[in-house]
Structures are given as structure tokens and as C-alpha cells.
């Protein structure tokens, strides 16, 4: 049975990327690789919408999240953490590991944080040094209002805005320079449609000023060393050579098709997926704040979402992600990132329709597929 990986990371990898990565290995301390590395960092600047150097780390996205804390904050500093899902919780855990105090702003799962809440919390807590938030919360499918939050933080010289854009950068616009974000993070296994193993991070000049004063321990994830070497077209430690070669191929592809076309594709697939499922009575978990990187679908109370996830895998080879913690058994998550096309979206909706029919759920058969297909015809 053919497998269809439609999880929000890892995502399907295009053949042209795999073929590039299948070529014989080259040494990383050579002019040949330095040119590839440089081209990749230059290409990342376009996707991150910045003139600053985008650093490439040999780690998953969590490594860059870790680096954003240990390179800019200091012992005893306080950070405001927006906790609206599993990855908001991860900010809390990283801060705890480094002894950074946290002010937690809890947000109901499936809803976005209010920028007014951010402002009020900062006004009432002048000792806060950073705001930590997801642009796209992968566990809930919520897009947080980063541009509005940046308007609050960018004129505060003593506060950084640190954004986990791992399932956002490349899926929809996150304008680092224009909005005034201080740190933005990306990951290879999301919209960059590559295997896991690379993370990307960019710092504003304000963030680099914080880095000069940071006293938290760091070695492998020392961003000052990474920045110094990146300007020389290399990295301080052995890079993930094959993945960087694949990244370069992806960025060339992005340049050829244009970012606007990339964002439009994600948007259309998002609309088609959520609308298709809504036609059969399954609702969008994120209300009015939907990330176009993935669809998080809430099932009716009488249905166990775990049965849908299991049925898709066993009957059709379609791998989607289930819900976590409080959302377990209530939702399933389908990606629009990576090498995903119209046929994939139709397949997952048709598969869910078949499973729901087996579960004696009452709906008009085929309506989800036909509804989604009408929207997908825009591609």
C-alpha cells in the first residue's frame, strides 16, 4: 500500500529535492559547499523577508527555539509566554530549563491571543524582557496576530518579540523587517518541504544587542559563532551537508514560482480542506484565526477522532496527525505544506467520508469531495 504522509511535519518531499540529496557527498570545508551554503542563506532572506543574516542550524526547530532563549536572555529575566497549545507549552519548558522566569498568558485551545492582552500584560509587568509566541500553533491550527503584537513590542527597546514560525514561514507571509519582529524561527520539515534536521533563525539588531549581555550557558547553539561563520559562507560546526544541498534546491524552486504563488497555494488548499469537511458536518477547530499551513478538524462528539486517524492509515495508507492532550480524540490534523497537491486533499476527504460511513455517521456521501474539488480547481 502506498503511504500518503499528510502530517504537519514531516511532510512529503518532492522528487527533485530527494534527487539532489542523493548525489555523492561533498566536504563542507570546500569552496563548492561554501557557495551552496551562501546561496541557501541568501535564499532564506527572501522567505524570511529580511536583510539580516538567516542562520542555518543542524537541529530540529526546537533547537532554534532553545537558541533564541539562551542567546538573548539572562538568569532572572522574565518572559511573557503565550500558551495556547503544545508548542506554547514548549516555550515554558525551555525557559524553565534556563532559569528564566515566565508570565504565562493562557489562551483557550483553538483561539488566538489578543494583542490587547499582550499590551496590558507588558504594561503591568515592566520587568518582562521578551514575548514568546507561535505564528502558527501546530497543535491547534491557530494563527496568532504577529503583526499586531509586533506593533506593541517594536518600540519597546527593552522587550524582544520572539516568534516560533516553524509552521508559518513559507506557508504564509511573516514579514520580519517590515513588522519589526526580533527573532523568527523556521524548520526544514514544514513549508520548506524537506526532511527534518535543519532549523533557521534570524535576529534583529535589537536582539543582537540582547545577545551581547546574555549570560545563559551556550556552546553548540552559540548564535554569535554561527553568525560570524555564516558571513564567511560556512558554519562553526559540521553542517548537515545533504540537507543544505536539498534546501538550496527548494529555495531555487521558491524563487522560480514566487512567494505569492506559494502562499496562494497554501490558502486555496486550506480553504478547500476545511470547507470540504464542513460540508459533511466536521468543523474547523480554529475559529476565525486559521493557519493556512494545516487544517485542524473537529469531529462530532459521538465520533472518536482516533478511529478516523487509525482508519485512514490502515485502510488507505493516509497518515494524518491526531489531537494532543485535551484535544486527543476530538480532532485530527491535515497538512497543506510540502509536496501536497489536489489529489492528496481529495484522497484524505474521500477517506474520511468512507470511514464515517462505516461508523454510521449521517451525511450526504460525496459532498465533501465535490465541495473541496470546486475550490481546488483554482489551482
Your description of this structure?
Helices cover 43% and strands 16% of the residues. It has 379 residues and is an alpha/beta fold. The chain folds into 2 domains: 4-9 and 258-376, Alpha-Beta Complex (Aspartate Aminotransferase, domain 1), CATH 3.90.1150.10; 15-256, Type I PLP-dependent aspartate aminotransferase-like (Major domain) (Aspartate Aminotransferase, domain 2). The chain has a 7-stranded mixed sheet, sandwiched between helices. Strands 11-12-15-14 form a 4-stranded antiparallel sheet. The chain has a two-stranded parallel ribbon with strand order 1-13. A hairpin with an 8-residue loop joins strand 14 (321-322) and strand 15 (331-335). Helix 5 packs parallel to helix 6 (146-153). The mean pLDDT is 97.
Number of strands: 15
Strand order within the widest sheet? Answer: 2-10-9-8-5-3-4
CATH architecture of the largest domain, by name, is 3-Layer(aba) Sandwich
Structural class: alpha/beta
Q: Work out the count of structural domains.
A: 2
Q: What name does the CATH topology of the largest domain carry?
A: Aspartate Aminotransferase, domain 2
Amino acid at each position: 500500500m502506498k503511504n500518503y504522509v499528510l502530517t504537519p511535519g514531516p511532510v512529503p518531499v518532492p522528487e527533485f529535492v530527494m534527487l539532489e540529496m542523493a548525489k555523492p557527498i561533498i566536504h563542507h570545508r570546500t569552496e563548492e559547499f561554501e557557495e551552496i551554503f551562501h546561496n541557501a542563506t541568501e535564499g532564506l532572506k527572501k522567505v524570511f523577508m529580511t536583510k539580516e543574516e538567516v542562520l542555518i542550524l543542524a537541529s530540529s526547530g526546537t533547537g532554534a527555539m532553545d537558541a533564541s532563549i539562551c542567546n538573548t536572555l539572562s538568569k532572572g529575566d522574565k518572559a511573557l509566554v503565550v500558551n495556547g497549545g503544545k508548542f506554547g507549552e514548549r516555550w515554558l519548558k525551555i525557559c524553565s530549563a534556563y532559569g528564566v522566569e515566565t508570565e504565562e498568558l493562557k489562551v483557550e485551545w483553538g483561539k488566538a491571543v489578543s494583542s490587547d492582552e499582550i499590551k496590558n500584560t507588558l504594561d503591568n509587568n515592566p520587568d518582562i524582557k521578551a514575548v514568546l509566541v507561535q505564528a502558527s500553533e501546530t497543535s491547534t491550527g491557530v494563527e496568532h496576530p504577529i503583526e499586531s503584537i509586533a506593533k506593541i513590542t517594536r518600540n519597546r527597546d527593552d522587550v524582544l518579540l520572539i516568534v516560533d514560525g516553524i509552521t508559518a514561514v513559507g506557508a504564509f507571509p511573516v514579514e520580519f523587517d517590515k513588522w519589526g519582529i526580533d527573532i523568527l524561527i523556521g524548520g526544514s520539515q514544514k513549508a520548506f518541504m524537506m526532511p527534518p534536521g535543519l532549523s533557521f533563525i534570524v535576529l534583529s539588531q535589537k536582539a543582537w544587542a540582547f545577545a551581547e549581555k546574555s549570560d545563559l550557558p551556550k556552546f553548540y547553539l552559540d548564535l554569535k559563532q554561527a553568525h560570524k561563520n555564516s558571513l564567511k559562507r560556512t558554519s562553526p560546526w559540521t553542517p548537515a551537508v545533504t540537507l543544505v544541498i536539498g534546501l538550496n534546491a527548494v529555495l531555487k524552486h521558491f524563487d522560480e514560482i514566487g512567494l505569492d504563488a506559494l502562499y496562494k497555494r497554501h490558502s486555496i488548499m486550506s480553504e478547500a480542506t476545511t470547507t470540504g469537511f464542513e460540508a459533511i458536518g466536521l468543523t474547523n477547530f480554529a475559529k476565525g484565526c486559521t493557519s493556512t499551513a494545516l487544517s485542524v478538524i473537529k469531529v462530532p462528539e459521538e465520533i472518536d477522532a482516533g478511529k478516523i486517524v487509525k482508519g485512514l492509515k490502515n485502510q488507505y495508507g493516509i497518515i494524518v496527525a491526531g489531537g494532543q492532550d485535551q484535544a486527543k480524540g476530538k480532532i485530527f490534523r491535515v497538512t497543506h505544506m510540502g509536496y501536497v497537491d489536489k489529489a492528496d486533499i481529495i484522497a484524505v476527504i474521500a477517506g474520511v467520508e468512507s470511514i464515517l460511513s462505516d461508523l454510521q455517521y449521517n451525511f450526504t456521501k460525496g459532498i465533501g469531495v465535490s465541495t473541496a474539488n470546486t475550490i481546488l480547481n483554482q489551482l
